[in-house]
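Reopening: structure tokens for the D-glutamic acid complex, inputs below.
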Amino acid sequence: MIGVFDSGFGGLTILKEIRKKLPEYDYLYLGDNARAPYGTRSFDVVYEYTWQAVHYLLEHGCRLVILACNTASAKALRNIQQRNLIQYKDPQVRVLGVIRPTVEAIRDYTQTKHVGVVATPGTVASESYVIETEKQDPAICVTQEACPMWVPLIENNEHGNAGADYFVRKYMAELLQKDRLIDTIILGCTHYPLLLDKIRQVTPDNIRLLSQGEIVANSLADYLVRHRDLEQTLSKEGNCRFLTTECPERFSESARMFLGEEIHTERIEL
Ligand code: DGL
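Re-run output (same inputs, fresh job):
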């Protein structure tokens, strides 16, 4: 199976696009809702929690795991790849994140080479988008804005309400004031597509808003073509199972608004 991990519901926006692009594979989604949000947690804690979740997915039949969470990709991916996977009993398993594919895609969109990133405080503090962009194209200038209130608003199903308008306007205004040449803004948190309509309303028309779902799905499809040995070991019956560390009924209910379909969820402990 292909494992897809997020601290909570946000990774469902990535899973949805991946399944649209690659429906033939089997997926196991894990949301660590009991310990979400991760965005304000320390580096060590995000790493510890993320590895526990990845380890669970590997032990339960996943040979490829996508960290569909920018915070986990920023704070845990490198350690998992360099410390945990090299000691893991199956040397062929792989864990991939969402930041590198997003940065690789930026070049196709920005004309001014001024890019904005809205993300959790953890992702912003890690500077992962700045560092990765510098590696890919040093001519691109990245300006970041931490949006600590957005994930809690979404996780509490308040993102459609007036309270959310205030925080969307506030963080977007702060970002755009810092760099007036921005022509592309990355929604650098997998929860944020749920705020897309509100974000669009306060963003000038000439600025493009980039969600990660399609970018990550395209990048995964390309990865599977380039890694045939791993690809051939993945099961392909078009199934998808959902796991959460919190209440499964609540997960299924909220997942409906992310996926637009009814699902069954099982509770696990990490
Ligand atoms: N969806 C996660 C991300 O992409 C973060 C949510 C959280 O703070 O747990 O960063």
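The first strand starts at residue 2 and ends at 6. The chain has 13 helices and ten strands. Marking as resolved unless the reporter disagrees.
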